[in-house]
Amino acid sequence: MSSLADANVQSDLDIAPLLLPAKVLRNDAQAIKAAHELAQVARLQAAKRDRQRKLPWSEIEQFTRSGLGSISIPREYGGPQVSFVTLAEVFAIISAADPALGQIPQNQFGILNLVLGSATEAQKKQLFKSVLDGWRIGNAGPERGTKNTLELKARITADGVLNGQKFYSTGALFAHWVAVKALNDDGKQVLAFIRRGTPGLRIVDDWSGFGQRTTASGTILLNNVQADPELVVDNWRINDTPNIQGAVSQLIQAAIDAGIARGAIDDAIDFVKTRARPWIDAKVERASDDLYVIADIGRLKIELHAAQALLRKAGQVLDDVSAAPFTAESAARASIAVAEAKVLTTEISLLASEKLLELAGSRATLAEFNLDRHWRNARVHTLHDPVRWKYHAVGAYRLNGTLPNRHSWI
């Protein structure tokens, strides 16, 4: 792991990763199939990668080569434009195997949606084509030490010179484009697409979170980085009109949490069946015959199915509202549907990952199994935005007709 002390030293982290040819998938069924194939591979070494903080390079490259990186690109630009229902399911499938692998490309899809809503036609064509060709996009939006998540200290001058420092830069280390949020000379937010390897762009692998360990969500340093003026997107424009930017981002976040819950429950069932011992008072030969264990597994499955049902419903709402120009009401309906799903996926990911250890017993806490990674991943990822504010948004909308705020977290 790198440190800021090494930030001024040229390293391999500052070189663009190998660009590999990517398939272009053509429909939703192909996307689901590719997700299952990736999950099957990713699951094998997920616990080991987490334990060793080994970054999932080969898995990310399979993600890209398989065509999954471009599944949301509109058909008019050469992409398959899968449904939002399918997009959520793809991320849930992958995250059940390894939620770090789910989170790494998450920002790419949020950024692609932002490009769709606020970029010029020329910018859309260039950026969408690059992703279809196998380019990955990394995030350089959040910062530490600001008043809140909306405040930005990074600046870009009129001639395109960027300066600033970023953190929680998920996906950037694996990316060919780094999408940098900054304020221009007019105080408006823009999104500059910077090629990896551009002088002054430094990526520091200093993410030390106890969960989602292999997302490389660390620091980016920007020291007089020259942006291409043709690739600076006026993303402030998207907030001038109704949009589903926040809903799209949150849908994928909720899908990652649903995947964590699936993985935890699957491991709980497997461990109870194959390794756990029954409690003495149960008077049974197998832990899987313990009445209380059976009931708890049933409860977890019911709550998971409820969360997945709301997640699917949220995807359907996004598909419905995207079929027509957005209005304030339709955008709000999308945000609220996703918020409702996010509440349940948050709760089941935390509950399932904790219940896994309770039902599996003391042996499940041994480091050799690394089953605590499910709870660590759930706890860290669900801190992305507080679910208590989802309850507030839903209540205000249902009770008083108050439309939710327009930002990336609702």
Describe what this molecule looks like in 3D.
- With 410 residues, the protein is α+β, with helices and mostly antiparallel strands.
- It folds into 2 domains: 4-238, Butyryl-CoA Dehydrogenase, subunit A, domain 2, CATH 2.40.110; 241-400, Butyryl-CoA Dehydrogenase, subunit A, domain 3.
- Helix content is 47%, strand content 10%.
- It contains 12 helices and 8 strands.
- It has helices spanning 28-42, 46-52, 57-65, 84-97, 99-103, 106-118, 121-132, 245-274, 291-321, 328-360, 372-381, 388-400; strands at 137-140, 155-156, 161-166, 177-183, 189-195, 201-204, 219-226, 232-233.
- It has a 4-stranded mixed β-sheet, with helices on one face. It has a 4-stranded antiparallel β-sheet with strand order 2-3-7-6, with no helix packed on it.
- A hairpin with a 5-residue loop joins strand 4 and strand 5.
- The chain is globular and about 75 Å long.
- The mean pLDDT is 96.
- Residues 251-385 form the Acyl-CoA dehydrogenase C-terminal domain.
- Residues 43-134 form the Acyl-CoA dehydrogenase/oxidase N-terminal domain.
- Keywords: Oxidoreductase.
Helix and strand arrangement:
Layout: H1 28-42, H2 46-52, H3 57-65, H4 84-97, H5 99-103, H6 106-118, H7 121-132, E1 137-140, E2 155-156, E3 161-166, E4 177-183, E5 189-195, E6 201-204, E7 219-226, E8 232-233, H8 245-274, H9 291-321, H10 328-360, H11 372-381, H12 388-400
Parallel strand pairs: 1-4
Antiparallel strand pairs: 2-3, 3-7, 4-5, 5-8, 6-7
